[in-house]
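Work Package 3 (structural annotation) set out to generate three-dimensional models for the target panel prioritized at the project kickoff. During this period the team completed the workflow that converts sequence records into discrete structure tokens, so that structures can be stored uniformly alongside our sequence database. As a representative example, we reproduce one entry of 123 residues exactly as it appears in the project archive.
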Amino acid sequence: MTTVEIILGIINLGFGTGIIVTLLTLKQTRRKATTEVEKGNVELVTASVNEMLQSVNSLLTQNKELVQEVLVRNEENAELKKKWEVVSRKLDRMQKAIRDVLVALEKLDIDESLLKPLKEEIK
């Protein structure tokens, strides 16, 4: 072997080894970068899921409050309906009593001008 061949062999060996090291380092660097990107994606997804869970919990709380309010309103409405029915029955009885009084007053030949306001009340 000549000195030129030896020098070229050493240069090739240096460059060849450098390429192999570079390829190995590149592969590890790529894995590390991919891992970091995946880790960032996982953190982003986790943060998004946590925000969604907080929103869902907030909506559930609001829903429970609204349901409770509706139940209270329903109870109040039921009580008012019962009171309305009582008032309505009393009104019906009062109108019947006024009609009975009118019939009795008409039999007694009471002046029509006095009976007219009573007749208008029961209409």
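The mean pLDDT is 84.
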